[in-house]
Amino acid sequence: MHDKYGKQGLAILTVALDAPAEKDLIAEANKEIARHPKLTRNVVWDGPEGEWQTKLNAISMPVVFVFNAENRWVKRLPEKHANGDEKTFEYSDLDNLVEPLLKKK
């Protein structure tokens, strides 16, 4: 996405949610992050194992939070059904959300 929208001001923050004790998974995440040097910020979750699900109100990964140019939260993907289950989403949904926000700049 950064290749497509970076020149229009898209900033991306990635958070690796692997347990800190999972050194191999952290190393793999860092290797993947290194393949994308244009990403704005890359961090590793260092809270207690499983806490991110509560903090992010998430059942599974990925979870995407979209903010506008004024740093205001716009939407969370996946959205939740009324019963709390997460709806599936495609990355094209993210494109459809981000494109108009970048045009408002």
Question: Could you walk me through the main structural features you see in this protein, from its secondary elements to its overall organization?
Answer:
By secondary structure, the protein is of the alpha+beta class. The mean pLDDT is 80. The chain has one domain: Glutaredoxin (3-Layer(aba) Sandwich). It contains four helices and four strands, in the order H-E-H-E-H-E-E-H. The chain has helices at residues 2-5, 23-34, 51-55, 91-103, and strands at residues 13-16, 41-44, 64-67, 73-77. Strand 3 and strand 4 form a beta hairpin. It has a two-stranded parallel ribbon with strand order 1-2. The chain is globular and about 40 Å long. Helices cover 32% and strands 16% of the residues. The longest helix has 13 residues, at 91-103.
Q: Class by helix and strand content?
A: alpha+beta
Give me the CATH architecture, please. Answer: 3-Layer(aba) Sandwich
Return the CATH topology. Glutaredoxin
- Low-confidence segments, given as residue ranges, are none
Summed up, the domain count is: 1
The major sheet is characterized as: 2 strands, parallel
Question: Mean pLDDT score, rounded?
Answer: 80
Note the run of SSEs as H and E.
HEHEHEEH
Q: Approximately what portion of the residues adopt beta-strand conformation?
A: 15-25%
Silhouette? globular
Number of helices in the DSSP assignment: 4
Q: What strand order characterises the main sheet? A: 1-2
**What is the radius of gyration?**
15 Å
What is the helix fraction of residues, given as a range? Answer: 25-40%
The rounded distance between the terminal residues' Cα atoms is: 17 Å
- CATH domain class: Alpha Beta
Number of strands: 4
